[in-house]
Amino acid sequence: WALIVLFPFYWMVLTSVKSYSSYNAEHIPSFFILNPTLQNYADAFTTVPLGKYLLNTLIFTAATTAIMMVVITLSAFAFARLEFRGKNLAFTLFLSLMMIPFEMLIITNYTTVVNLKVYDTLYALILPFTSSIFYTYILKNFFDSVSDSLYWSARIDGSSNWRFLWKVMVPMARPSLMTIILLNGLASWNSFMWPMYVIVSKENRTLPWGLQVFTTEAGSYPELLMAASTVVVFPVVILFLFARKYIVRGVARGGLKG
Questions:
Q1: Is the CB of residue 69 less than 8 Å from the CB of residue 181?
Q2: What angle do CA 132, 136, 140 make, to 5 degrees?
Q3: How far apart are alpha carbons 72 and 68 in whole angstroms?
Q4: What is the pTM of this model?
Q5: 50-81 vs 87-96: helix axis angle to the nearest 10?
Q6: Distances from the Cα of 222 to the Cαs of 4, 118, 162, 205, in angstroms?
Q7: What radius of gyration, in Å, describes the C-alpha atoms of the chain?
Q8: Which one is predicted more confidently, 52 or 34?
Q9: Among residues 91, 95, 94, 143, which one has the least CA distance to residue 254?
Q10: pLDDT by residue (tens digit) across 153-210?
Q11: Could you give the 3-state DSSP secondary structure of residue 132?
C-alpha cells in the first residue's frame, strides 16, 4: 500500500530530472533514468517567477495561520469558559455553518473582496481564511476538558480571564494548537481555487496557481511542470513526515473529553 501511495511522488521526481528530448523520445514510459539532470529546476525558476510565487505562498500561509490562531483561541475560550446569553445557540449556529462547503461561499466572498477594493492583492487571499469553525470546535473541546477547579482557583488568586487564557490554557493546549497550525499551514500552502478567482496579475500568484503556467502560457513542458510541482510538494511532505504524530495526537485530544 505504501508503494501505491508513494508511486505518484516517485513518478513526479523521475519526470522532473528527465530532459525535454529524452522525455519526448520515450514511446514507452521508463521507470528508471540513467542520466538525470537538474536543469529543469533552474529552467522552472527562469521560465516563470517561481521565486516570487514561493514568497507569496509563504506570506499567505504565515499570515492566515497567525491571524487565525488568535481569532480561534479567543473564540474557543469564550465559548468554553465565559458565560453570556445565547452562548449555546450561537455556537450551534456556528457549527451548522460547517455543513456549507466553501465552494458555495465563493460568490459572496468574491463580492466582499471587490467591495473592499482588495481584489488582486495578497489581502484578498488572506481575508476569507482568518477564522475556522472546525478549528474553533477542536480547541473548544480541549478547553472544556480542563478542570473547572483550575479555572476558579486562578480566579480566586486574582487572575483575569485574559491572563488565565495566555498563561494557563494556551500552554496546556500546545498539542492541539500545534495540530491546528500544521493543518492550516498545509491547507493554505496547497490552496488553489480561491487564489485562481481573486488573483489576476502574475506577481501576486501563489505556487499552486502558478503551476498552470507550464501547461498554458509557457507551452506544454511536463518536465518543467514536474520540477515546479516537486518544489511545491517537497516542503509539505517533509513537514508532514515530522509532524504526523502531532496531527493525529492533537485531533484525538481535541475531539474527545476526559
A1: yes
A2: 175
A3: 6
A4: 0.77
A5: 150
A6: 22, 34, 53, 20
A7: 23
A8: 52
A9: 143
A10: 888 888 888 888 888 888 888 878 888 888 888 888 888 888 988 998 888 888 888 7
A11: coil
Neighbouring C-beta atoms of residue 117, cutoff 10 Å = 9
Q: Which three cell numbers stand for residue 203?
A: 506577481
For 124-130, which contacts have Cβ atoms below 8 Å and span 24 or more sequence positions?
124/198, 124/199, 125/60, 125/64, 125/191, 125/194, 125/195, 125/198, 125/199, 125/206, 126/60, 126/63, 126/64, 126/67, 128/194, 129/64, 129/68, 129/184, 129/188, 129/191, 130/64, 130/67, 130/68, 130/71
Q: Which helix (H) or strand (E) is 29 found in, with range?
A: none
Per-residue pLDDT tens over the stretch 10-50 = 888 888 888 766 666 555 667 777 677 788 888 778 877 88
Residue 204 identity (one-letter amino acid): N
> And the C-alpha cell for 75?
473564540
Residues belonging to the chain: 258
